[in-house]
Amino acid sequence: MVDATLHKPKEIREPGVVTLSLRVIGQILSTPLGAIGMVIVALILFVTLLAPHLAPYNPLAISVKDRLAGPSFAHWLGTDQLGRDLLSRVLVGTRTAMSVAFSALFLSLAAAVPLGLIAGYGPRLLDSLMILIFDSFSSLPMIMLGLATVVLLGPGSGTVVLVIVLYCVPSYARLVRSQTLSLKERDFIKAQQAMDAGIARILFIHLLPNVIGPLLILACLDISTIITLEAGLSFLGLGVKPQIPSWGNILSDGFAVIRNSPVPVIAGGVPLILATIGFTFLGEALRDALDPRLKREKLA
Amino acid sequence: MVSFLIRRFLLSCIILLVVANLLFLMLHMIPGDPTVVALGPRSTPEMREAFRHMMGLDRPLLEQMGLFLLRLAKGDLGTDVWSGRPVLSMILDVLPLTAMLAIASFLWAVLLGIVLGCVAVMQHGKWADWLIGLISIAFVAVPSFVVALYALLVFAVALHWLPAIGAGGDDFTSQLKALVLPSFTIGLGWVGYVSRLVRAAMIEAMGEDYVRTLRAYGVNERRIVFSYALKQALLSVVSVLAIGFGTLLSGSVFAEIVFSRPGLGKLTYDAVISRNFPVVMGTVLVTSALYLVCMVLADIISAVLDPRVRSAL
């Protein structure tokens, strides 16, 4: 009886997930910003999925006699200081950038959601303690945090992912916490408490779906920062291993030979610029489409 | 107001304490000998022994942390494991250079950002507004080290207009010349930030009652934009500048490395490469302390500028 009355109005109010997503995509595509972002991101995801098939050469194949060649029909973007085909490295590098970014993002969300729920729903003291730790991490400039982690753990993909997680978790967990704090006073949660629902049920079945939307917008806006962080650490020689094709590594190699050939630096930088701009545009459009309030909060 | 500032100050101190302890604990959480972790495989047994003693690693954990904090309180950040110089004096040597870079970047970026923001507001809804909005987001999104590399490529390597490396000699002109490319690199993202911020704040201000009243009194529209709405916008710029200090510093790490310019960022990077943990720890602590100082300063400045904030505290 109780269940029926609780669920009935919900079904009338909310259109299906497919209709909603189509509406959001339509809204994003209707703005120039969103359309540009969507096209770039779709292109990047396409390259990510098909990189090995699109690359004309093996991105690791060294050919010293062709080194630092300019663009030609054989090598559209020329070659780097070891004669490796830059186009192939750029294409496969897309896959590196995306796999680091999305695995780090997934881990951050997986860590931040329970932490934020606990901080928001748990006892006051625990909440204050967690906020203090989050704030401490946020007070470290991102790159400094990265450098300190690298000096202790050594460079590598795992360290890069960890640095990104350390950077993302505090702000995501704070968002989940503040949403939880305001939601837990609402009637539908009070009703669950009155019905003696378990904490896990309240947190994951009732609070989580309401928290996830704003969190995903924030995460989408962060993707370009995350890509930059990975490429930046790789550029400094502290990220993914030097032989692995990644945009940061291409830039790092190119920086060393910048006086001999501008091609590697240009080839490594353009996809990075495109990716960061694309994801930022898409994130902004997504936010405007889904939640105009978040914009205000972020500016305030 | 005073009690608010004291609270903020105390909170900042506590955060700094937590950061220091986190850094210290990180050494212990990692499996293996902490001295090898901190100094790398190249270190000699004597160096490891000295480091163990310096960090107090041969004593119980709690005592170590106590000793460590005590040294910090005295302003002793430890010594460089390779050269034996005190870390604090190394930091103080390069701090003015980074500060100069930061101020130069902020100055041009804030000025241009405010101008762009004002233009966007006056052209609200027209193509110029839209274009400025688009460029601003793009400026924010583009990684600063790519901007640095491209600027180096174009202005130093190809055109030879500006020096590619260093912080300039003793004379002011060469220092200024060496400042141009790095500060351009760091500031570009800020132009975008500031212009968006100014635009949003001014549009909000234009909708307020006092602007309606000014209009009713027949005050010139230009005057409303520049002397009333802009004032409101500047407030939000001040608060964001402090919060953005971390971003600025990240930018300066890359700018200093790309342009081989001595500074806090380059010092940290070189220390990471040579596995010099005390120096890394020192610079990380100093930067997060600077960040916290900026936050408190921003609160004070906005309280001084805005009577509404002042009375709310």
Verbal overview:
The complex is a heterodimer of chains A (300) and B (313). Chain A is an all-alpha fold and 300 residues long. Chain A has a domain at 99-294: MetI-like (MetI-like fold, Orthogonal Bundle), CATH 1.10.3720.10. In chain A, 77% of the residues lie in helices and 0% in strands. Chain A contains twelve helices and no strands. The radius of gyration of chain A is 23 Å and the shape is elongated. Chain A starts with a helix and ends with a helix. The model of chain A is unreliable at 294-300 (pLDDT under 50). Chain B is mostly helical and 313 residues long. Chain B has two domains: 2-73, no CATH class; 87-312, MetI-like (MetI-like fold, Orthogonal Bundle). Helix content of chain B is 79%, strand content 0%. Chain B is built from 14 helices and no strands. Chain B starts with a helix and ends with a helix. The chains are: A mainly alpha (300), B mainly alpha (313). The interface between A and B is large, with 47 and 58 residues.
Task: Describe the protein's topology.
The complex is a heterodimer of chains A (300) and B (313).
Chain A: H1 2-13, H2 17-30, H3 32-54, H4 86-121, H5 124-138, H6 142-153, H7 157-183, H8 187-194, H9 199-235, H10 247-256, H11 263-290, H12 292-299
Helix pairs in contact in A: 2-3, 2-11, 3-4, 3-11, 4-5, 4-7, 4-9, 4-11, 5-7, 6-7, 7-9, 9-10, 9-11, 10-11
Chain B: H1 2-29, H2 34-39, H3 45-54, H4 61-73, H5 87-122, H6 127-141, H7 144-158, H8 172-206, H9 209-216, H10 221-243, H11 245-258, H12 264-273, H13 277-305, H14 307-312
